[in-house]
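hey can u check if this looks right to u? its 275 residues, i copy pasted from the old doc so theres a chance i mangled smth
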Amino acid sequence: MKKLINQHPTRPFRWLLGIIPFFILVILYIGASNARLAENPNDKLLPAFSSIAEAMNRLAFEPSKRSGEYVFWQDTISSLERLAVGVGVSALIALVLGVLNGTIPFVRANLSPLITAISLVPPMAILPILFIVFGLGEASKIVLIAIGITPFLIRDMQQRVLEIPGEQIIKAQTLGANTWQIIVRVVLPQVMPRLIASVRLSLGAAWLFLIAAEAIASTDGLGYRIFLVRRYLSMDVILPYVLWITLLAFAVDYALRQLSQWLYPWFHDQTPERA
């Protein structure tokens, strides 16, 4: 008899197993919502799906009377722009410093202790400082994302470079490669897919810092809208916004995974799924 640990579901069955927990959550929500609304029709904690659909139709498909913008889509665009810039800047800095730290001992001895110390500083604790230094505009939100995830990415890149077999470095030097050629020809091709993997792991923290910054000082964005309507207990807006953020995070993670598989198929072939 085949052991349970060696049994794998087929693709359709795997999709079914993945959908079942979400289906159960929806059923539980409907039951709890109906129970609360039956007791109090004005209850706002668990609104009916019809109330959620009405609120989202107003935000997504009706222009704002104040600004003329479609609020839901404007919030989405603003948040994604901040996230993209913040994560992009962090990835670029991490790639440069991580590779330098990993390949050049003098750089590692000089910068590694500082980066380790910075990584231990809670980013939210310095948020007021960022607002004072960079103001309440876009810069402070992007810097918060960068400060929040860049040290982690740098340390991870440094570790990945140090894990490259020393034999490869020695062979490259034997063939006459200088430091720059070793970095470009040996190190970068091996750490780039790992950088994408590290960025995927840091997306959760990046979203956290983005929402926090938008909630404190912003005039648009998904985090701003959630904290704006909380004072009115508008769960018919908060719940779909939270779900939308989750879907966006999943979509970004999926896109990065597909990009990595397309650019670096050899990296994913190293750990194939067991049959």
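The chain is about 75% helix and 0% strand.
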